[in-house]
Amino acid sequence: MNDCTEENRLLWLSFLKGDQDAFSTLYKNNYRMLYAYGRRLQMEENQIRDIIHDIFLKLYAKPDLIKNVTTIRPFLLVSMRNAFINWKKKMQRQTDMDVLDFDLHYTVENEFWDKEQLMDVKKKVEHIVQQLTPRQKEIIYLRFLYEMSYEEVAQIMGMSEQAARNLVYRTMDRIRKDNLQAAFALFLF
Fold first, then answer.
1. Do residues 111 and 85 share a domain?
2. What is the pLDDT of residues 76-107, one digit of tens each?
3. Contacts of 163 by beta carbon, 8 Å cutoff, 6+ apart
4. Are 112 and 124 in contact, with CB atoms under 8 Å apart?
5. Which residue range forms the structural domain that includes residue 171?
6. Distance, C-alpha 173 to centroid of its chain
């Protein structure tokens, strides 16, 4: 269990015992993660803030929504994702899961010796990312950037753990086959 999960667990247990400050800290500790996830889902800033606020209001009013204290972070991300999908469906009147246009941004540290090399790597990563479907982008984001377990990824994306493993495998296989010489660049961000 990573530190974030353990801290969330301890804060949640403190909140359940009546510590209001623990709930406030839980909100503050997870706000950035949820905000970043909302931006990657291409939500508007006001919409993100409203959804985060609503998620925590719902948790405050109904703490029994968290069945297992180790699933707080996945619960928050699933709630964010579901709120976006519901909003998108309402706006576009679509029920297809591909309404989720996941935007996988990347960052490359300035550890490169010259700007040409940096630009070359950015172009390669951009090319790789453009070839991925929205679901592939999302699973790579959750699995490798947030370093989430397959169980957590599966819970967030509404699929079985084996389906999550298969999707990661197929995505990585596609990257390797399509971009053999540039595949390493995806993991530099």
1. no
2. 999 999 888 887 777 765 444 444 555 555 44
3. 154
4. no
5. 102-188
6. 21
